[in-house]
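User: I'll paste a sequence; please echo it back and then give the predicted structure.

Assistant: Echoing your sequence first, then the prediction.
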Amino acid sequence: MQAVLDTMIDHKQRDTRLMWALCVASVVVYINLYLMQGMLPLIAEHFAVSGSKATLILSVTSFSLAFSLLLYAVLSDRIGRHTPIIVSLWLLALSNLLLIWAPDFNGLVLVRLLQGALLAAVPAIAMAYFKEQLSPSTMLKAAGIYIMANSIGGIVGRLLGGVMSQFLSWQESMWLLFLVTLAGVALVNYLLPSLADSQAMSQSKTEPSLSKRARLAQDLHGFSHHLTDAQMRLVYAIGGLTFMMMVNQFSFIQLHLMAAPYEWSRFQATLIFLCYSSGTIASYFTAKWLAKFGQHKLYQWSWCVMLLGSLLTLFDTTLTISLGFLMTACGFFLTHSCCNSFVAMRASRDRAKATSLYLCCYYLGAAIGGPYLMMFWHEAQWRGVVMGSLTLLALIALAITRLHYHQTHVKRVLV
């Protein structure tokens, strides 16, 4: 009896370490990803480019991150979940040294393209790691906490970027980023248990005779298996379109708040990212709300909240803009949590590939959203951005409606 209790305690401790290690890794990743969004004014000044052109830094990082997710999905299915996470994080910390001596804006773009590839490992693998190692109930809780960690990392990264932009030079800022990243990676390295990646390892042992072509065909079949699932495709579209709107709204609102009549300072403009806190709270309660109200209701409510939040900013006061972004962030993170949980629970095989396909669409949305909303910004400033966002919300509503139709009228036979 005592042996059984000891085993249960060991499993609980291992699960807790896994959860916190991936959450800390998530915070490190999202600090590195979104720090530049809080530094847009300093980037524009230091590299002598316009504010709107500086927003492309987020797009290029998201672009390389999106496609790298697919590579990590294949890699983690072959060699396991632990090694790609740890190696990519250490390389990320070292790559921050390159930012210190970036010679010009083009050089900065190249380094951020490289970093996007390194940033992809954790989001590509984390949910599959949770699904394989945790019980279903624990997995839902871990998923909610993990998304909350994403939000915290995004908030800290953007605010840290704002502080750096206001008070530090470019080189001083990048040295600080290097040290923060190094400390975070060391903590993840200590916390993450070296679990036996049973699925990946068993595949490599039972299929030693497969040729490279056969392995490639197997990988492609894993991706196509999920892409032929209509419900998966719709969830991928919902996540991509939602992120396309939300994350780029936060970029352009900084430019709006730094112009007349507000004329906020660099640091004051980044305080708008505190509105992410509503998303942090919403992520934590998503598992409970999913169980109580169901997925479709949450999608509907989050869509309405994002619509009202976007429209509220048109009143163009500090209060209405703040309330509008609090609502938009809340609605977005509810949607993102629902999508993440749906993909992880629906994927009965090739889980890392299912998650990476979702996140590929998600970050492609972020990459495309910058140039897309920039067109509206040049035409009508912030009102134009809201109009562009309403078009995206219409497409999101269509996808949610189609998803509900498939769930209630179409039965998919799983292979």
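Residues 1-9, 196-206 have pLDDT under 50 and may be disordered. The longest helix spans residues 351-409.
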